[in-house]
Amino acid sequence: MFADLHCHLLWGIDDGAKTPDDTLEMARALVQLGFDAVAPSPHARPEYPGEQPVAVRRDEVQALLTSEGIPLQLYAGAEHLFDEHFMLAAASDARRSINGKKYILVEAPYVGSIPGFAELCFRLKVKGITPVIAHPERCAQFEQKGQAAEAARVGAALQLDVGALVGRYGKLPRKLALQFLEQDLYAIAATDLHSPLGAMDWVGRSLRELEREVGKRGVQRLLDSNPHHMLAGEELELP
Questions:
Q1: Does the model's pTM come out above 0.85?
Q2: Which residues does 9 contact at the CB level (< 8 Å), separation at least 6?
């Protein structure tokens, strides 16, 4: 079964699910598409609730899923902006990692780039933290030739947003996603699901496109084995 480590499932926390009904509809769609585990990843930014309110809401959502008979297990997670504040917080261990283990989801800016990005990734690895780079195909940093490969080389784990494969974010992200798949740069794939609107359709098409590109074995590595390794804090399978 699949595990989604980038998903905005918790209602009323960030720009994801707005209501309990949204959360339930999204959860049902994920289960129907083969997922049995999710690490909801609300944005860890000052304008959004912090770790304690998120933990409370996650418990509320888990209880709701159980009461509705939806077989989806939730784990801790958050989506961090890769900036100076994050680096300082990571240095002092004040971070919200995936299931409290060594992997932590971060996103680069959509516009502009971070000087010395690979070096920053390496510094995190030295501290025992593996950055999981959210949707690199959508970030300007990785439009620069070789940046994605360099991040992977120093130990970062790249996460594919499956929606890019069906053009959900435009032509360039789709082109980059296909390039990075061909180069075996991705460690995991995820939905980055924010809303129930059309979820069954576009996520379903995205998963079929992913299988067309990497085969069943590749899908198993990107959506099953490696995400579960991350939840357990274990080493990842190579392509």
A1: yes
A2: 16, 17, 23, 26, 27, 38, 40, 61, 74, 193
